[in-house]
Design goal:
The complex is a heterodimer of chains A (288) and B (354).
Chain A (H helix, E strand, L loop, with lengths): L2 H39 L23 H6 L6 H32 L5 H10 L9 H10 L6 H25 L3 H9 L4 H12 L1 H17 L2 H6 L8 H10 L7 H22 L14
Helix pairs in contact in A: 1-12, 3-6, 3-9, 4-6, 6-9, 9-12, 11-12
Chain B lengths: L2 E12 L2 E12 L3 E5 L6 H9 L6 E6 L2 E2 L10 E4 L11 H11 L4 H15 L14 H14 L4 E5 L7 H18 L2 E5 L3 H7 L2 E6 L2 E6 L1 H6 L4 H6 L6 E7 L4 E4 L2 E4 L10 E6 L5 E3 L6 E10 L4 E7 L4 E6 L10 E5 L6 E3 L5 E2 L1
Parallel strand pairs in B: 3-8, 3-9, 6-7, 7-8
Antiparallel strand pairs in B: 1-2, 1-4, 4-5, 9-10, 11-12, 11-14, 12-13, 14-20, 15-19, 16-17, 16-19, 17-18, 20-21
The chains are: A mainly alpha (288), B alpha+beta (354).
């Protein structure tokens, strides 16, 4: 290869790489912009928060006034964050446990009417959950679980399960049977088999189920609004409507921005923690 | 020889369908037994029943004199190597090898020692900290065998372990498995549909068809004295020529209009029998009337040898192996001869006639 050709090829490679990275950085900035805007706006002082939104960053010094104002709504931001966190975590844990076991069962065991049950579970996805809110309310009231976070968790888990069971069954279907058989020969049985051998292999499925369960229960508004009646039991989305509604007709936009940040950060954290389980090629080398 | 394993009237049904029909088999300790048969003959099912991965519908399985029919796979004193390796992808090679022992609550130091010993036997020490995904096919298969060795089983079970490897690697792994058997001296049961593997590895070949054992014997016995036409046709490549014949007096049969001499049998005149002749036993000549006459269909040149595909006068096909000689033109008339001791004779039901 002549020096000229080599030079030309290197230049092409440079510009190709440049375009690739420039596009990536552009896209990343595009998606990051709303977070940055809200985050910066939430750091403006109380008086500045009432001013027009441009520029979005604080011009009169950084302050946490808006977060302090947010804390004056309802039973205090910590109480509501705790409510939301408890509900979301309990929903995630219960959903993962139940869907893991159900998915394993549907994938590996043979039992009568298996497909009918599975279709029935999936079919519940067709029912809009708003349409069953009234019966749900009545059922929870009969069980003495209305206006309780436990009741709310049970509702969220129920709503989350059809998708989760479907997800986990597919995850287990993708695990070669021989791995399970090899583990049985190695002496792993029942729970040990599930935890030591199969769980790591279905981790992408578990991560997906956990992320969806977390996001949906963390952000859910309607059921929380209807099923909870005590002020100090409200979850963050319900609190946020109170903040957004404002006091005496005046909306504190700074508090709204602060509330958005409080609601967003845990979602980001959960996603960033779990995204590494999406790693491709997790099953590589198992068979073939 | 002490007894390594015994199957007694073992049966397996899937619903109303019986796939293993009462198999009896005794395997001596330290013997290398190969199950061969066409696909769907039940050889893998039988192996999985020995492993405890399939329930036994009826009958008993004994390993080392102990009835293991209803025991958990891990309690049977067996280890299995799968066709697909079935390594745990999320564990390092070291963890893969030690997993069985850690399940049995063996102390860590002992696990490490046994894993190292197995790795040394298989020469996979440099790979111990890698994941299965970072290994080549041959290396994975070594790890899978290593995992079996670490369990110190009484019986090794191999389910077509080399089928996923390329031809060259298959040969070297085959030799390695033979060496391993010599070094460890364990009883091994090996399922394959590859005849070369069966012939080269086995102390004892078990030929299966439709869930029934057709013949048990050493590779030589199975090859030279097949019990029936199925075994005769299945073992050997290219397969044994099985020619329809009619008995014509004592010690004579007619094949496609030619009279050939056979050992004297007390089968009535006019009865149909089958004559079996291995391709490599047929001596081809261009002018020797009085023997079997055929016309050449086509020839396959393989370098060291050549297969000549012929047709007899009545349309029956015949394959001959020829090590030297001129190329033969299509439709050329040729004659075949053989040593009388090399001819096999089967009755109308396909059973060997002495």
């Amino acid at each position: 290869m002549s020096a000229v050709a080599r030079h030309r090829r290197q230049r092409q490679k440079f510009w190709g790489g440049f375009g690739y990275h420039a596009f990536g950085i552009g896209a990343a900035l595009f998606f990051f912009a709303p977070f940055a805007w809200t985050g910066l706006a939430s750091l403006r002082t109380g008086s500045e928060a009432q001013q027009p939104p441009l520029p979005p960053w604080p011009t009169q010094g950084v302050s946490f006034d808006t977060y302090a104002v947010l804390d004056t709504f309802g039973a205090g931001i910590w109480q509501h964050t705790l409510n939301s966190a408890l509900v979301a975590l309990a929903t995630v844990v219960l959903t993962v446990i139940v869907s893991l076991l159900a998915g394993y069962g549907f994938s590996r065991y043979r039992f009568p009417l298996k497909n009918v049950f599975f279709v029935l579970i999936i079919a519940t996805l067709m029912i809009p959950f708003q349409s069953i809110l009234t019966p749900l309310f009545i059922i929870l009231a009969k069980l003495g679980l209305n206006n309780s976070l436990v009741g709310l968790v049970l509702v969220y888990v129920t709503l989350q399960l059809p998708f989760s069971v479907f997800m986990m069954r597919n995850a287990f279907d993708a695990v070669p049977r021989e791995i399970e058989e090899a583990a049985r020969i190695d002496g792993a049985r029942d729970l040990k088999l599930l935890v030591r051998v199969l769980l790591p292999l279905v981790m992408p499925g578990v991560a997906t189920v956990a992320i969806f369960a977390f996001l949906n229960s963390w952000n859910e508004f309607l059921a929380a609004l209807i099923l909870l009646s005590d002020n100090d039991k409200y979850t963050l989305p319900v609190l946020m409507t109170a903040v957004r509604a404002g006091r005496l007709g005046a909306i504190n936009w700074g508090a709204v921005q602060a509330g958005v940040m409080v609601m967003t950060i845990p979602c980001l954290a959960v996603f960033l923690i779990l995204q590494r389980y999406y790693m491709r090629g997790l099953m590589a080398g198992a068979v073939k | 020889m002490t007894e390594g394993m015994r199957l007694r009237q073992v049966r397996k049904s899937f619903g109303p369908l019986e796939v293993i029909h009462g198999v009896d088999l005794v395997v001596g300790e330290g013997e290398f037994v190969v199950f061969v048969g066409p696909s769907g003959c039940g050889k893998s099912t039988l192996l999985r029943m020995i492993a405890g991965l399939e329930e036994v519908t009826d009958g008993d399985i004994e390993i080392g004199g102990k009835d293991v029919t209803d025991l958990d796979p891990s309690q049977r004193g067996i280890a299995m190597v799968f066709q697909s390796y079935a390594l745990y992808p999320h564990m390092s090679v070291r963890e893969n090898l030690g997993f069985g022992l850690s399940m049995a609550n063996v102390p860590k130091a002992e696990i490490a020692a046994q894993v190292d010993a197995a790795a040394k036997i298989l020469k996979i020490e440099p790979l111990l900290d890698r994941r299965p995904g970072q290994l080549s096919g041959g290396q994975r298969q070594r790890v899978a065998i290593g995992r079996a060795i670490v369990r110190k089983p009484q019986v090794f079970l191999f389910d077509e372990p080399l089928s996923n490897l390329d031809a060259e690697l298959r040969v070297s792994m085959r030799i390695e498995i033979a060496r391993l058997h010599r070094e460890l001296g364990n009883t091994m049961v090996y399922v394959t549909h590859d005849q070369t593997e069966a012939m080269t590895l086995a102390d004892k070949i078990v030929v299966l068809r439709d869930g029934v054992i057709e013949q048990v014997g050493t590779p030589r016995e199975v090859y030279e004295h097949p019990a029936n036409t199925f075994v005769a046709g299945f073992i050997g490549s290219p397969r044994m020529n099985l020619l329809d014949a009619t008995v014509q007096g004592t010690g004579k049969v007619m094949v496609a209009g030619d009279e050939i001499e056979v050992p004297s049998i007390d089968t009535p005149n006019g009865e149909n029998v089958t004559v079996g002749l291995r391709p490599e036993h047929l001596v081809l000549s261009l002018a020797a009337p009085g023997t079997l006459q055929a016309t050449v269909d086509f020839c396959e040149y393989l370098g060291g040898t050549r297969y000549v595909y012929c047709q007899l006068a009545d349309g029956q096909n015949l394959i001959a192996e020829q090590r030297e000689g001129e190329d033969l033109a299509v439709n050329k008339v040729v004659y075949f001869a053989w040593k009388p001791s090399e001819l096999r004779l089967f009755n109308p039901h396909g059973i060997k006639l002495v």
